[in-house]
Amino acid sequence: MVALGAWASTPAPVELGDTLTKKKKGEERNVMLNASDANKPREIQIGLPSEDVNVYENGLPAVYSSSVHKLAAHWRSDASLGEVGLMTPSESAILTGNVAYSVNSFSNLGQKDFRGVLNYKTNHFGWQNFDLNVSGGIGDKWLYTASMYQNFDPGSFDPQFTDYSDRTQLYHAGLTRLFDKGKLTLKYKFSKSQALGSMVNAAPFIYVGDGSVKELAGFKLGTSSYAPAGGTFTYMDILDGKMKTGRFGDFTGNKAHELALLYDYRFADGTEWSLHAKYMNAPEANYVDFGGSTISRATAADNLLLENGSAYEGLVEGRRTWLHFGKVQNALLTTELKKQMGNHGVRLGLNEWFYHLDYHSSSFQWTATATETPEILTRTDGTESSKYRGFNELSPEYTKGYENKLALYFTDNWQVTPKFRLLYGGRLEYYRMSADQIPYARYAGFHIGDTHTYTDSEGNTQTVTIEPHRVVKDKLNYAATVQATYNLTRQFGLTADATVATRFPKISDYAGTGPTEAQYKRVSIPLLRGGVFFKNNWIDVTSMITYISKTNNIDQQNVTKPGTTQSKTTLLIYNIQTLGWTTSAEIDPFKGFHLHALFTYQKPTYDNYFIKSPFEGVPDLNANGNIVKEIPQILAEIDPSYQITPDLRLWLSFRYFGKTYANLTDALYFKGRWETFGGVNWTVNKHLTLGASVVNFLNQKGASGTINGTELLGKEEAAKYNNYTMSGNYLRPFTFELSASIKF
After folding, report:
1. What single-letter DSSP state applies at residue 251?
2. 60-61/115-123 β-pairing
3. pLDDT band at 30 (very low <50, low <70, confident <90, very high)
4. Cβ-count burial of 641 within 10 angstroms (0-12 exposed, 13-18 middle, 19+ buried)?
5. Which element (helix H / strand E) includes 581?
6. Taking the model in full, what pTM does it have?
7. Quick check: 574 and 606 in contact, CB under 8 A?
8. Where would you tag: which of 401, 432, 502, 583 has the fewest CB atoms within 10 A of its CB?
């Protein structure tokens, strides 16, 4: 999810595009401190559900879309990078077409003298991380760089069917030719990754009823495994309907090759020209999702059998699995001209981004014990028995095709007077999508080539053959921004900006049933901000009121009949709007001490959100006016650091997330929680730096996200779930980490 106003400090002279050439103070702050996932940037909230984690490398998307080819499978903040910064939502809207805080990273291309760095990290769970870069010069005209990243992460518990929760390898090699007024770089990257992801990020707990949770007897949140012990499972391939077998953990392979060309040139009149292009081919982009439903207590009458054939009595949960198979290719090019002309800093750019996707998924359901390392149960009715059921009933997906973005953008940073600065820009994008989709409701046994008979909404019997249909769209997207800053005094001033970006549904939106022609509507995201700033030699503070909304948001939602494991998939198109207030400060009260502080209050609400209940006896859901689930209304950050000596630095990071609703009806919620990080860094000498840090040093055992199986639970029924066993996501457990960095 991406908090409403300025996340890091929003200093008065925020210049659009500066982060493409350098970091701005504070804006890259702690972006890799993620209390949900140690291996990717955190999602910075702007009051809207996040579409993606937006990361760019050398001005190009690190992965074009993380919907299939996951970001963490191909990019890490490692030693291959020279800089990591952050683009504001306004910057991102013009340069990329997406309104979101975006991480912007740049490769270390080398320098004429030899340099090397080896970073090592470990923790008390056995994590081993090695990160090496060497770079230097060859003669006067050539530079080289080479990097290797190796991650061996067993996680905080043993899932039993694999040795590592994350095993990722990245290799980089680059060669640069220097010219009198420019440079040309050829860079190769190879990635190979297997990560369990959502297979292991859920757990059972007791929902107390006041927003807090308690641990289930025999289950420790964060250190007990809720992944099944392993063995083989059975699924139906959506492509041909054939029954196949596999093992958990064997469907998470990712592999990609990338070749990049980076050219930068400076003309005699000061005009800067850059052309950055890359081709990436990922023949494997696979992952596995686990989901849950209602937890109940089984008796012998339920006919659920353990592996040894005995009847099981105890807590059980209906579990779901989605196997995702993808092949991804993209060819991306961005070229820019920049020039300072008097009081105008002008930028003109072009994106040509091509993305090809060949993707499908298969789903199945199973019932397991709600215990540590659950056992998958066999369901029997006396004549037939099975462990797996509901093949492809819940949102199996399929799409094959491409999308292409050809965009022209410009910005002008105009210093109108010494006190008044005006920045404006625009983006016009030609968007073409050609994709195969399967526009039929899913059912048990769904697959391509199947003949299915159903009754339509008018009571007529229809027979169809399940097959892909081609959808082709040619559309124009646009974005625009205006930002104004006026200094009333040398220290105090006013700032305001307005940004709007639009797009049409993406190829990934057609992986499910997809929007119909009548539902295919422009998505619009307007962002308005205004406030004041004050800056002197020890404090830099900005306070802003922000409004942001999003129309025609597309979501595919699995909903469960309350108190059961019955689930259906429904396509939703709705609006969201958020009004909020954010104050951010950078404070240096005395030598060696620095404090970053942020406070946000926001109220994100649904509009035009309606679910026609697919279950008899369960009322329809009208969520209009409800607070958006998973997005807190209050956010705070406190980041103090102290340079004890020139070589010794102590730092802390406290993040507060206020009351957060855990289902669509706002019936269930989680109380506010703190996410905490801290550490010490010691520069032993110019060659060696040591560090120690702690994740979740308050050892909070809270849950986050949504609660499985409660999507349609009404407020009048919420009290029934006090002290009820449920399942959902949890925070990373207390983790002690050590690091060492050797420069040579």
Report:
1. S
2. unpaired
3. low
4. middle
5. strand 567-587
6. 0.89
7. yes
8. 432
Q: Which residue in 739, 738, 729 sits closest to 35, CA to CA?
A: 729
**What does 311-372 look like in DSSP terms, one character per residue?**
BP-EEEEEEEEEEEEEEEEEEEEEEEEEEEETTEEEEEEEEEEEEEEEEEEEEEEEEEESSS
Q: What digits encode the pLDDT tens for the residues 319-330?
A: 999 999 999 999
**Res. 335 pLDDT band, cuts 50 70 90:** very high
Average pLDDT over residues 632-639: 93
> Which structure tokens are listed for 17?
């595009």
- Euclidean distance between the first and the last CA atom of the chain, given in angstroms as a whole number: 40
CA distance 374 to 499: 49
Hey, how many other C-beta atoms are within 10 angstroms of the C-beta on 145?
Answer: 24
- Report the greatest alpha carbon distance in the chain: 85
Instruction: Kindly state which CATH superfamily the domain 18-743 is placed in.
Output: TonB-dependent receptor, beta-barrel domain (2.40.170.20)
Q: What 3-state class would DSSP assign to 504?
A: coil
How many Å apart are CA 386 and CA 366, to the nearest integer? 9
In angstroms, the Cα distances linking 115 to 145, 149, 630, 743 are 9, 17, 45, 7
Report the sign of the C-alpha dihedral through residues 123, 124, 125, 126, in that order.
Answer: positive
Would you say the C-alpha torsion 691, 692, 698, 701 has a positive or negative sign?
A: positive
At 96, is the secondary structure helix, strand, or coil? Answer: helix
310 in Cβ contact with 300 (< 8 Å): no
Nearest Cα to 648, choosing from 594, 587, 592, 696?
A: 592
Angle at 100 between CA 3 and CA 340, to 5 degrees: 120
Q: Are 327 and 290 in contact (CB under 8 A)?
A: no
Say how far apart CA 667 and CA 403 lie, in whole Å. Answer: 40
Kindly indicate the confidence band of residue 51, based on its pLDDT and cuts at 50, 70 and 90: low
The order of strands in the sheet holding 304-305 is 304-305, 378-380, 385-386
Structure tokens at 492: 């105090």
- Give the C-alpha separation, 217 to 206, whole Å: 9
pLDDT tens track for 5-25: 332 333 333 333 333 233 433
CB neighbours of 576 closer than 8 A, spacing ≥ 6? 47, 48, 49, 549, 550, 553, 604, 605, 606, 607, 628
Q: Are 596 and 586 in contact, with CB atoms under 8 Å apart?
A: yes
Ranking 272-276, 505-509, 738-742 by mean pLDDT, the lowest is: 505-509
- Cα–Cα distance list, 4 to 25, 89, 102, 271, 380 (Å): 20, 10, 14, 36, 51
Residue ranges covered by each domain of the chain: 18-743
Give the pLDDT score at 23.
40
DSSP for 588-636, written as a single string: --STTEEEEEEEEEEEEEEES-EE---STT---EE-TTPBPTT--SEEE
Per-residue 3-state assignment (H helix, E strand, C coil) for 263-316? EEEECCCCCEEEEEEEEEEEEEECEEEEECCCEEEECHHHCEECCCCCECCEEE
Find tokens 């982060």 and name the residue. Answer: 19
Encode pLDDT of 55-67 as tens digits: 999 999 999 999 8
pLDDT in the model for residue 517: 83
Closest to 331 measured CA to CA, from 72, 60, 80, 95? 60
Q: What is the pLDDT of residue 1?
A: 36
Name the helix (H) or strand (E) containing 240.
Answer: none
Among left, alpha and beta (phi > 0; psi -120 to 50; other), residue 314 is left
In degrees and rounded to multiples of 5, residue 328 shows phi and psi of: -130, 140
